[in-house]
Each structure stands twice: as structure tokens, then as C-alpha cells.
Amino acid sequence: MNRSRSVPPGGSGTGGGGGGCPQAQQSVAKLAFGGAAGKGGLATVLNTRGGAMIMKSVSIFLASGRRASAVPRDRASKSGDRAQSSDRGRGQQQQLQQQGGRRDSRRNRKILAKMDELNGKLNPKMLEMYKRRTHFSKIEVEALCKIFRKLVTNASLNSKALAANNAGVIAKAGSSTDGIDRSVFRELLHSTFDIVTEETLMERIFCAWEKGYEGLPIRLEGWILGLSTFLKGTQAEKTAFCFRVYDLNSDGYITKDEMFALLRNCLIKQPQDEDPDEGVKDLVEIALRKLDMDKDGKVSFQDYQEAIAEEPLLLEAFGQCLPSDRSTVSFLSTLQAQEEST
User: Fold this and answer.
1) Which stretches does UniProt call biased (Basic and acidic residues) (predicted)?
2) pTM of the predicted model, to two decimals?
3) Are 267 and 279 in contact (CB under 8 A)?
4) How far apart are CA 321 and CA 262, in angstroms?
5) What distance in Å separates the CA atoms of residue 219 and residue 209, rounded to the nearest whole number?
6) What is the pLDDT at residue 310?
7) If exposure means fewest CB atoms within 10 Å of the residue's CB, which of 25, 57, 88, 307 is most exposed?
């Protein structure tokens, strides 16, 4: 009985760590041990050279069985790797498709926004977005869209009429879709919002109106967001806007030279003044003492904020860049009348 449980060299019992086919191993064991035992036992077989050869053959067979079983495992492993690689490939493809879908979605939103600008109206999602980002109601936002479209269309018609009456003038291509340009904006500031100031400050108001699009025609988004600050802005919003206007080179500071340029252009020169610049320099020193909170010789945004918080009248110290109260009430009344009529 003990001999029947002997382990052949290179093996590990029936179906052990060798990993060969169990049925084949059992058949070989019966052939090697069981048949011989029935004819006089294992000892008789082992005493012959043939018995040794059988044992060697058994070992070789079991070893080949392990190798043969390893091949399917290798194939299965490779197949699994290929499957994982295929899954990763599909995952990457899905990621690319999702990224492409997001890009398409952003592109579609831009196209829709452009179509909204052309039509002078907003889709419900854009309308809700502007309502959240501004101090206007939905009806007021819609009214501002109509005004924007009318201003841009009228400017385009005027440009074409000018080109038709003057052979040397060429109408600006695509002007009807660019936005509100300098000339229209300046006229609007003067006639609608009672801002009467010199050219430098007018230009600065235009450039500071839409952050990130300095000097470019004002888009629908910039028009709505800018008017929200202009007409209904908080003290903090108006402070930030005025600082951008006065910071002529957009370096984050209002310097003495910038103060001088702004105040000099705002003052009315008297013919009898021998040196009017001396009076401007005195005003600059006074403004610097009021606004330069950290006494470093220039006004940072933090300086400006602190000074305005203490004395709000200093908000437009270097020239008018916000609408008068009368014009604000009048313009908002127009928007509210639009709301009541719908």
C-alpha cells in the first residue's frame, strides 16, 4: 500500500504542484505500478533494467505534462493581457470620445451664443446664466439684448450708408457682428449716461469695460456684465472698475505720472496761468496723501480700496467714469417699462 502512494521523480502526487492532466497521471500510475503489482509486485519490476526505464519514462511524461499544461496557461495569460490591452484601448477611446464630446459641446455653446448675439435674444440657459451673474432681472437682460442688437445694427447701416455716399470709404466687413465699437460707445456715454470728459478718459472707460477684451468691440456678454456694474454695481464692483480706468498701463498701480496725465487733461487752463502744470502737481500730491495708504509713492488697488472705504467721494478722484444718478434712474426706468409691457 505504501508503494502505491510513492511519488514519481519530478511529480507531486496525483494532480499536485506539477499541474499535469489528472486523468493522464492516473492512467500512467496504473500502467507503471498497478499492472506490475498484480504480477509479483513492484520490487520485481524495479529489480530489472526495464523497470528503471519505465520509471524514467514516467518522470519524463509527467514533466512534459507540466510543460504542456503551462502552454495553455501562458496562452491564457497572453489572451488575458490582450483582453486587458483591448479594454484599456476601449477605455482610452471612450475618454477621447468624451473629450471630443465636451469640445463639441463648448463649440456648440459658442455657436449658439453667437447666434443669440445676431438675433438680439438669448436662449433660456444663457438668460438664466446672465441673471445669476448680474444684478438684472430676466426681463431686463432681454431688454439689454435688444438694445445691443439695435446699436450694432444701426452702426452697421450707418457704415454702409457712409460707404455708399463716399467712394473712398469702405464699409467694415462683418461690422454687424463685431459688437459695439468706440464711436458708438462714446456717443452712448455722452448722450445716455451724461459722462462729459476728455478723450483719454473716454478711451480708458472703453478699454476697461470688458476685462480680458481691452480695446476690442464690446460683445453682448461684456455689454450686459459691464452695465450691471455701471448701473447697479456694489461699492466693491465700482471701485474695481474705476481703478482699472485710472490704471493707464494696467500694471496694478496708479502712479504719480498717471495721476498727472489724468488731472491735467481734466483741468481747464486759464490764459493767465504762467505754468498750469504746477497746479496739477499740487493736486497730485494732495491725491497721493489721500490715497497712498502705505506711503510707497504709488496707489495700489488695496490702497485705493481702503481709501474709498474711508471716503467714498474719492471714488472718481481723477475724472468721471460712472453715470450720473439722473441718467441711471432714466435708463433703468426704460428697462422696467420694457418689463411692464411684456
Assistant:
1) 72-90
2) 0.62
3) yes
4) 12
5) 10
6) 95
7) 88
